[in-house]
Amino acid sequence: MPKVSAKRQVILPVEQCREVGIQPGDEYRSFVANGHITIVKKIPGTAKGCLHHVTGDPTISDEESRQSALN
Fold first, then answer.
1. DSSP string, 14-37
2. Which residues contact residue 10 at a Cβ distance below 8 angstroms, ignoring those fewer than 6 apart?
3. Which of 23, 34, 47, 65 is most buried per CB count within 10 Å?
4. Looking at per-residue confidence, does 12 or 51 come out higher?
């Protein structure tokens, strides 16, 4: 069974990496929910175009937009 190293590094089992297509050098995201860590391989371009329908409002400054998001 893999263990967490002193540097908090984790070795993923080869079989699991093969199953999901993770290879050395791949980037990933990790999420914590309900006391569990989930690792997801990042796939370049998967979000491309997901906000194509969003348009900005040129009458609102960047600072006004930031403040609105914070409130």
1. HHHHHHHT--TT--EEEEEETTEE
2. 2, 4
3. 65
4. 12
Structure tokens at 65: 């937009």
Between CA 13 and CA 2 the distance in angstroms is: 8
Q: Answer yes or no: is pLDDT of 46 > 90.
A: no
Gyration radius of the chain's alpha carbons: 19
∠2-23-42 over CA atoms, to 5°? 100
- The dihedrals phi and psi of 58, each to the nearest 5 degrees, come to -65, -10
Residue 62's Cβ-side half-sphere holds a number of Cα atoms within 13 Å equal to 0
